[in-house]
Amino acid sequence: MGRSPCCDKVGLKKGPWTPEEDQKLLAYIEEHGHGSWRALPSKAGLQRCGKSCRLRWTNYLRPDIKRGKFSLQEEQTIIQLHALLGNRWSAIATHLSKRTDNEIKNYWNTHLKKRLTKMGIDPITHKPKNDALLSSDGQSKTAANLSHMAQWESARLEAEARLVRESKLRSHSLQNQLGSSTFASSSSASTSLLINNNNNNKQEAASTTPTTTTVPIQSRSLDVLKAWNNGGWLKSNEVSNGVGDLESPTSTLSFSENAPPIMTTTNSGILGENTMPMIEFVGSSSGCSVKEEGEQEWKGYESSNNLAEYKDGIMENSVTTFTCGLHELTMSMEGAATWPGSHEPFRTNDHAIVEEGFINLLLNTNSGNHRSLSECGGDSNNDDGSGSGNGSDGDFYEDNKNYWNSILNLVNSSPSDSPMF
DNA sequence: AATTCAGCCAACCGCAATGGT
DNA sequence: AACCATTGCGGTTGGCTGAAT
């Protein structure tokens, strides 16, 4: 029954690594790169399976690993990201670039989870535990909307994480070719990015609408953290410090302030003048340049939407591919697309708001030319963007803000060495 | 000093995803 | 399309360490 363990070969060592083994592995990878993990142990003279070598390298020996105590900022980041992403440790780890997923997972399980539990917060839902007992219509609606928003942001973060991974691989591969790297890329030259919101993520299982209409491909910083900052959710000194030692990969996968950062398309394919990239599923192509700090500019960013299906102007299924150099971004949707936080269908002439989207949802702020997502509860046929937000919507967003704020405040007021923990 | 207990974390296991043929 | 090899990921385990008794 089942697959035989990879290390069941006689003679292969298991358990803790010795300094000698570490040295062998390190020396080999520094000289040759890891290449095929399966082939590595014999080449490196190690009595280990490739999997064990890979784990040892990625979780311990890699030179770009930060070890030691987690800072308060890192703790906050983990909690915030966990609220959005659930137990997707690798995705969380990409926003704490010097921490491994394993370390974050361990830290969550041994510290943060217990802390939240003691504070009366469900570490899975990130809501007060007695919230489940309060199931008035408004609250259940709020929960559903939060879930939907989290789903959106989750997809976006995942996309960013993958882009960052790919770009790192590219970078490392390039360095290898130049003979100056200790890393090696095991991935092929062509890369792909798949965002499928209809996945089997456990946390999202409860969500009822597995659709994605907009998948932002970049933001200058982690939206939630920015929302925290912009909304004054952090203490003033924390605001002034930005996000502390957080090294969000999104900040390195950023658009230059002066670059033509346009991904907005119209039905005619004409570029807009927006200062943030937007993706619109309108079946035309556009061009833009994407620049990655410290790397070559990505030329010839193109997108095409060739598989969207529309019914009465409502996009029902879509596969959109963006090609950006070696990178290919594919977004697929199943089922009718709707705006987050509402059941209003996404229509072909709706502009997808990227950077503002989730922040505005949280902060209930509208901006300039774009139709705010918070307005989408109205009739989407109002193409003038004059949809109305009603009072209960305002309460909803205020509640959301207060909820997230309360989590952060609780954590802030509960340092690790507090007797509470 | 010896034993027990709890916390921590490196490492393992197995499933899922991906890529190649 | 099917199969296989490889890699990625998240859950879990087991050993080490220090505190408590």
UniProtKB/TrEMBL annotation:
Its main location: nucleus. It comes from the Eukaryota. Coiled coil: none annotated. It is found in: Nucleus. The keyword DNA-binding applies. InterPro entries: Homeodomain-like_sf (IPR009057), Myb_dom (IPR017930), Myb_TF_plants (IPR015495), SANT/Myb (IPR001005). One of its GO terms (biological process) is cell morphogenesis. SMART domains: SANT (SM00717). Keywords: Developmental protein, DNA-binding, Nucleus, Repeat, Transcription, Transcription regulation. One of its GO terms (cellular component) is nucleus. Residues 248-261 have a biased composition (Polar residues). Residues 238-261, 371-394 are annotated as: Disordered. The keyword Glycoprotein does not apply. One of its GO terms (molecular function) is DNA binding. This is Putative transcription factor MYB-HB-like family. It comes from Lupinus albus (White lupine).
